[in-house]
Write a structure and sequence with these properties.
single chain, alpha/beta, TIM Barrel, Double Stranded RNA Binding Domain, eight-stranded parallel beta barrel, three-stranded antiparallel beta sheet, elongated
Length: about 525
């Protein structure tokens, strides 16, 4: 019988050890609440003995009412040759006032002798005393067996003795840790099965991704008796990261049929993934399994044609099951199915076998040959199709623009100024703005000219600006492709411009961005 698998999230502790990630106390509370709402069983809040911020988190978390998630405090076993009641780090774990305490202990003789520099028997006593102490204080205790697989390979008898020291003194679960991330799925499967046979308590798995196998190793452990998986949202963690919960959770539910996170909650998986990335101030990995923007994206004409007829012919699950969606890209590899499906996705009625569809495909390939790229520029593709179908409406006409940069010789002072003259709703509007650079100045001048007539333009912000030289062999005469990502706080869209002049290319992408926003606003009326 398949037992339910408990999900133990350590994003707030192990995940926060990743380079470039730092969560505030407020961030950690928001993430903990979101994890709880999603259905995560355990949320590890941090190591209260390591820094004041983690203690502040535990204080704040104690005042929150979570639906189901248990907050865990993380720490180590007592010090060598010390009593639990006299160890300051142990005292801090109690002070965290959580229902769950997770203790990390040494399993590998190498670490016992060379890192903490004590004897093998004393290390066993440290584990047993610490687990017993927290059980006597009414805690649910997880024992994280650090470097377990390395220790098992070195000295299987001693590695198992460390687990028994925890299990025999009341540990609710022993967690097998591949701390260096070097284990293979076959080894994890075999060793987990042997541990499962030897112990009565629950067995968990905690894997790192140094070989790119963290998720595979976690699943191998579950197949062989593990009933708890530890990991982080989006795989955050030291070095190359931890087991990615946004991958392992749908694998457990949809591929292995293991109960854990409620199925209906999986539809919020992508939303959760994006939320944590946003709080970490990281751009989302578009190629991430299940939750990435390209996870259910089709580009090749043959693929798109097959998906149009039968989605599961090229998709292993329905995208909606994990809160994602199917996307069709248009490029020089496109066929008519791509164009038809993309137009339908953007709300444009287009008959796949029509002359119009053939014209769009021909024009698209000509544009891509000239350097345009529409994969990340849905809004520009929408405008291109509307123009080819003679359905496009111009919201303003450019009369003139100019960009001036005044730079002093020492480079310490410079002024970038842009002026824009437009015809808008029968009025001629002339605005001048300064900016950090020519594109920023142009963007400000354009919006200043339009906001009086279209107030919603004030909501639009540029999220990203990318420049690429299309044909670098032409040196300074090469064409420049500019891709701009914009948002109005609700939607995000991409636009593209190509020209041998970077300002012209940028202007083209800016205009598409603004016109797409105005078009979408008009549709809502």
């Amino acid at each position: 019988m398949n037992k339910p698998v408990a999900i133990y999230d350590t994003t707030l502790r192990d995940g926060a050890q990743a380079e470039g990630i730092s969560f505030s106390v407020a961030d950690k509370i928001r993430i903990a609440e979101r994890l709880d709402a999603f259905g995560i069983h355990y949320v590890e809040g941090g190591w209260p003995g390591s820094n004041p911020k983690d203690l502040d988190f535990f204080d704040a978390a104690a005042r929150r009412k979570l639906k189901q998630a248990k907050i865990a405090a993380f720490g180590s076993t007592r010090r060598a040759q010390a009593k639990c009641q006299d160890d300051p780090q142990v005292a801090m774990l109690l002070k965290a006032n959580t229902t769950v305490v997770t203790l990390v202990g040494k399993t590998w003789p190498l670490h016992v002798k060379e890192v903490i520099r004590t004897t093998l028997p004393e290390n066993l006593a440290m584990i047993a005393d610490s687990v017993r102490y927290f059980k006597e204080n009414g805690k649910e205790v997880m024992y994280d067996a650090e470097h377990f697989f390395d220790g098992y390979r070195d000295d299987a008898r001693y590695a198992m003795a460390t687990l028994r020291a925890a299990a025999d003194t009341g540990a609710d679960a022993v967690v097998l840790c591949d701390t260096n991330g070097g284990a293979l799925p076959s080894d994890v499967a075999r060793i987990t099965a042997e541990v499962r046979k030897a112990l009565r308590c629950a067995v968990g798995i905690h894997t790192h991704n140094d070989c790119g196998l963290a998720v595979a190793n976690a699943l191998a452990a579950v197949e062989n008796g593990a009933t708890q998986v530890q990991g982080t949202i989006n795989g955050f963690g030291e070095r190359t990261g931890n087991c990615n919960l946004t991958t392992v959770i749908p694998c457990l539910a949809l591929k292995m049929g293991r109960d854990g996170i409620p199925r209906e909650n999986l539809r919020r998986l992508r939303e959760l993934s994006l939320f944590v990335d946003d709080l970490a101030n990281l751009r989302h990995d578009v190629r991430q399994p299940f939750t990435g923007a390209t996870a259910f994206t089709h580009k090749g004409g043959i693929h798109a044609n097959a998906v149009e007829k039968l989605a599961r012919s090229y998709e292993h699950i329905e995208p909606e099951l994990v809160g994602n969606r199917r996307r069709v890209l248009v490029s020089e590899l496109s066929g008519r199915s791509n164009i038809f499906m993309k137009a339908h996705e953007l709300g444009i009625h287009l008959d796949k076998d029509s002359t119009e569809a053939k014209d769009v495909l021909r024009q698209l390939k000509q544009h891509e040959h000239a350097g345009y790229e529409y994969e990340a520029a849905d809004a520009s593709f929408h405008i291109l199709v509307q123009k080819l179908l003679k359905r496009h409406k111009s919201f303003f006409n450019l009369l003139a623009y100019r960009v001036i940069m005044d730079r002093h010789g020492n480079g310490e002072h410079k002024i970038v100024e842009a002026s824009v003259k437009l015809q808008v709703k029968g009025h001629v509007v002339h605005t001048v703005s300064e900016g950090d650079g020519p594109v920023n100045a142009l963007d400000r001048a354009l919006r200043a000219a339009l906001e009086k007539f279209y107030p919603s333009i004030a909501q639009v912000k540029l999220l990203d600006y990318k420049v690429r030289i299309v044909d670098s062999q032409l040196a300074t005469a090469a064409k420049t492709r500019v891709i701009i990502e914009s948002t109005d706080g609700t939607a995000i869209w991409g636009t593209v411009g190509v020209n041998d002049n970077i300002i012209e290319a940028s202007w083209e992408a800016l205009v598409d961005s603004v016109e797409y926003k105005l078009f979408k606003d008009e549709q809502k009326k």
